[in-house]
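Hello,

Our lab assistant flagged a job as stuck in the queue for most of the afternoon. It eventually completed. Since we weren't sure the result was trustworthy after the delay, we are filing this so someone can double-check. Below is the sequence as submitted and the structure that was eventually returned. Let us know if re-running is recommended.
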Amino acid sequence: MQIHWVHPDLIPDEQRAATEKRLAVLAEGHSDLIDVRITVRATPHHRRGAQEVRIVCDARGGELVVTRERPDAAVALEEAVEAFERAVRERRLRRNDPRKQEDNVPPELGIVDRVFRDEGYGFILTDAGDQVYFHRNAVRGGLGFETLEEGQRVSLNLEPGDDGPQATVVRPPPPDAPSP
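-- returned structure --
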């Protein structure tokens, strides 16, 4: 497993080393984690904090993404690493427990409800009726944040956030996705 830091200057050297050690222990004896990118950046425009830590892991079978925002980058990193460790453990349990595996589970689907371009975020209304927050950095797969339109059909990955569910990845829907 490779670990790459982007803008690590907001994190003390000791905490970076401890984080790398935790990730190495998590990867020990497993080959599912391939590449981990940890991005630390200031986000003064967001309402919940000024520092964001985003962990993106290329893993066998997909991508794991965890983001935490706090006023202190070190606290955001600690919370992001804890959430990442939980996500990896849950993923491994699902892969190893045939009772929990669901074949061909479709992605979450929804429509763009509101987009606040100047603020860099928006909300998606899922087919299940939940309103989900998304950040501009979650938009991928050929979609552009600046070109998203209200009512546009999308697929999304969800994770629990501080104020309810949030989309970690927003992509175009699969070609066979049902209409809302």
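-- support follow-up --
The delay was a queue issue, not a problem with the job. The result is valid. The first strand starts at residue 2 and ends at 6. The chain has two domains: 2-100, 108-171.
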